[in-house]
Design a protein that fits this description.
Elements: H1 2-43, H2 47-57, H3 60-64, H4 70-76, H5 79-92
Helix pairs in contact: 2-5
C-alpha cells in the first residue's frame, strides 16, 4: 500500500511538471528569444529596425492610428514616427521602453 501511495504522489507531481516542460516552456523560450533580440536592437540604437519590424507585424488597425502614413514617414526618416513605431513594437512584445 505504501508503494502505491508513493507512486501516486510521484504521478500527481510529475504530470503537471511534464505539462509545463512540454507545453509552456517552448512558448516561453520563443518569447525570451524575441524579446532579447528586440532589447539588443534597442540597446544598439537600432530603433529604425524596430520600426520596420513594427510596420511589417502590426495590424492595419494599429497602423491606421497614426495621423499620417507611417511607412512614408519611416522612409523619410521622421524620428517621431520611427520612435513611436519602435515603442509600439516593444509594447507588442511586452517590453517597456
Amino acid at each position: 500500500m505504501e508503494t502505491t501511495a508513493f507512486w501516486l504522489q510521484v504521478a500527481l507531481i510529475a504530470v503537471p511538471v511534464m505539462f509545463l516542460l512540454i507545453v509552456w516552456l517552448p512558448f516561453r523560450l520563443r518569447f525570451a528569444l524575441r524579446a532579447g533580440a528586440a532589447l539588443r536592437l534597442r540597446a544598439g540604437g537600432s530603433t529604425d529596425l524596430l520600426a520596420l519590424r513594427a510596420l511589417t507585424s502590426l495590424s492595419g488597425r494599429e497602423l491606421a492610428r497614426f495621423s499620417s502614413d507611417p511607412a512614408a514617414a519611416w522612409r523619410a526618416g521622421d524620428d517621431q514616427v520611427v520612435d513611436e513605431l519602435a515603442r509600439r513594437q516593444l509594447a507588442t512584445l511586452g517590453l517597456r521602453q
